[in-house]
TrEMBL record:
SUPFAM superfamilies: Staphylococcal nuclease. Gene3D superfamilies: 2.40.50.90. It is found in: Membrane; Mitochondrion. This is TNase-like domain-containing protein. GO terms for cellular component: membrane; mitochondrion. One of its GO terms (molecular function) is hydrolase activity. It comes from Piloderma croceum (strain F 1598). Keywords: Calcium, Endonuclease, Hydrolase, Nuclease.
Length: 192
């Protein structure tokens, strides 16, 4: 019951044993924040899909679902920063956000939870839509960079694979690299 039918209401409900086991959780993406995080409405067990649908995801606004969803951070990548706290958005932030929204919003995802980050988001790594990996797909498309700050998680693929795919996107001038590699990275933008 606890694993397959009890709904995890928010990131606060994820217990240490779930992190230890690196348990997978299934849910529907309700909203996308910046292009490296999103909110997941946990949908365990049966009853969420046809033909036996007796449970449903609330159709509330973004703010009303905040306490009923899990805030997920995509492991291993850093996206261009959107406009926050009076600071302007980085170049390509709207395009990266649109790419991620188009790819996952409203879809069912399986997430392997790794740990909680400094902002109480749950860091995840797992298959996106079999056989692709969301963070690696974003790197291939050129909309994110490899996250290299303290506490970075890369899952089973490792940092070298992330850097290799980022280098391929830069060489092919995809996404935010279409004008070259001289632009400010999200990490440099945050430090500034």
């Amino acid at each position: 019951f606890r694993r397959f039918f009890r709904r995890i209401r928010s990131g606060d409900w994820i217990t240490p044993d779930i992190f230890t086991k690196k348990q997978r959780i299934k849910g529907v993406v309700t909203t996308v924040g910046d292009a490296d995080n999103f909110r997941l409405y946990h949908t365990p067990g049966i009853g969420w899909r046809w033909p036996i649908k007796f449970r449903s995801i609330p159709s509330k606004t973004k703010g009303e679902l905040k306490d009923q969803t899990i805030h997920i951070r995509i492991a291993g990548v850093d996206a261009p920063e959107g406009a926050h706290f009076g600071r302007p958005a980085q170049p390509y932030a709207p395009e990266a956000l649109a790419w991620l929204k188009n790819a996952i919003e409203g879809k069912t995802l399986y997430c392997r939870v790794i740990r909680r980050d400094q902002y109480s988001r749950i860091v995840r790594s797992d298959k996106f839509m079999a056989p692709s990996i969301l963070s690696l797909e974003m790197l291939k498309a050129g909309w994110v960079t490899t996250y290299e700050q303290a506490g970075a998680e890369y899952g089973e693929w490792g940092k070298d694979e992330f850097l290799r795919i980022e280098a391929e996107a830069k060489a092919a001038r995809r996404g935010m690299w279409k004008l070259g590699t001289s632009s400010e990275t999200p990490a440099e933008y945050k430090r500034r």
